[in-house]
Amino acid sequence: MKKVALITGITGQDGSYLAEHLLKQGYTVVGMIRRTSTVNFERIKHIQDEIELVSGDLLDEVSLINILQTYRPAEVYNLAAQSFVQTSWSQPVFTGEVTGLGVTRMLDAIRSVDPAIRFYQASSSEMFGKVQEVPQRESTPFYPRSPYGVAKVYGHWITVNYRESYNMFATSGILFNHESPRRGREFVTRKITDAVARIKLGLAQELRLGNLEAQRDWGFAGDYVRAMHLMLQQSEPDDYVVATGETHSVRRFCEIAFGHVGLSYEDYVVQDERFMRPAEVDLLIGDPAKAISTLGWQPEVSFEQLVTMMVEADIALLKDEHRL
Ligand code: NAP
Ligand code: G4F
Questions:
Q1: What pairs with residue 179 in β-bridges?
Q2: What are the boundaries of each domain within the chain?
Q3: Prediction pTM value
Q4: For residue 263, with 0-12 CB atoms within 10 Å meaning exposed, 13-18 middle and 19 or more buried, which class applies?
Q5: pLDDT digits 0-9 by tens, 63-116
Q6: In the structure, which protein residues have their CB atom closer than 6 angstroms to any atom of ligand 2?
Q7: Is CB count within 10 Å lower at the N or C end of the chain?
Q8: Architecture of the domain spanning 184-217+246-284+301-322
Q9: Please, where are the H alpha helices in 56-126?
Q10: Tens-place pLDDT, residues 160-191
């Protein structure tokens, strides 16, 4: 019998990489999608015939219960969220409903259908916010700086609470920023690599950004989904930081991305107040020691490889789109 895994957020960046990884591991993959008026399967269209898609929403517990009863998954990966930090200031209540309370809805649906299901919660380094320790590890206190970060802290603690209250296998992966050619274009890395490609191909003249000094621990999404799967194969549920242990500024990301196509970022980047945040997370750098020693996990893609991979992918995509 093949193991069944349910992924919420399968149409997102991580959902698509995790689905690919679980298929390779021999799982039956069920992906929960929400109803939209137009299809948004861009990231999963290459594996659509190999996975099963089912309608549901983290805002609707009835749909979660029905899906669990129908598919009887052994593992649930809860990746769905309103995941863009900037939007969480303009839609704080919605962000709390999906990114925070949505976790409780899924955990409680699991508790009522089959408490033996193993659960993965997509927690975030944004929970460390105004960092209380450098580098950040599992024991570092949280100090979130956005409604998104606050909602993720709630999601993390409700996961711990269901583990302790009901003895459920509920695990929280505290993942630092991870990127790829499938990253949404609103996030700074993809915004930069998309702009570099457009400028190089003569399709744009400038790139408007906010805070260039923010520092992030950026890894490759394809590496990070392997850690999610490993967490659910352990004998006990726990919390794990997943990170590279390196940090770089947005400015440095620009320097490498523009440099890769023979341009200087200083000639094209314009700072724009509109992209500044009401409260910033200045520095994130994770300590992945526990994930390395307990899970046997290692990142394989370096920061420079990540940046150049994304620039190359955006150039290829635009050339194709514009028949260049
Ligand atoms: P993403 O690309 O923004 O994908 C989010 C997914 O959630 C999409 O499939 C989206 O569906 C779905 N979704 C949103 N609201 C939903 C709802 N109410 N019900 C059901 N599905 C809903 O995010 P990602 O980068 O893959 O991140 C995956 C998870 O990891 C998120 O929880 C994020 O907060 C967390 N995380 C990400 C990072 C990172 O650096 N990427 C780091 C730490 C934690 P649509 O396609 O229909 O919009
Ligand atoms: O790419 P970002 O929008 O990602 P952020 O806020 O770090 O959040 C991402 O990573 C989290 C993990 O730490 C996830 F939980 C979350 O779901 C998401 O995936 O911004 C990165 C940095 C920020 O400091 C921001 O102020 O880049 C800075 N930045 C500067 N100019 C910009 C811009 N960010 C965006 N999105 N757009 C800009 O123009």
A1: 220
A2: 4-178+218-242, 184-217+246-284+301-322
A3: 0.99
A4: middle
A5: 999 999 999 999 999 999 999 999 999 999 999 999 999 999 999 999 999 999
A6: 83, 85-86, 124-126, 176-177, 186-189, 191, 209-211, 214, 216, 250, 275, 277, 280-281, 284
A7: N
A8: Alpha-Beta Complex (3.90)
A9: 61-71, 87-90, 92-95, 102-113
A10: 999 999 999 999 999 999 999 999 999 999 99
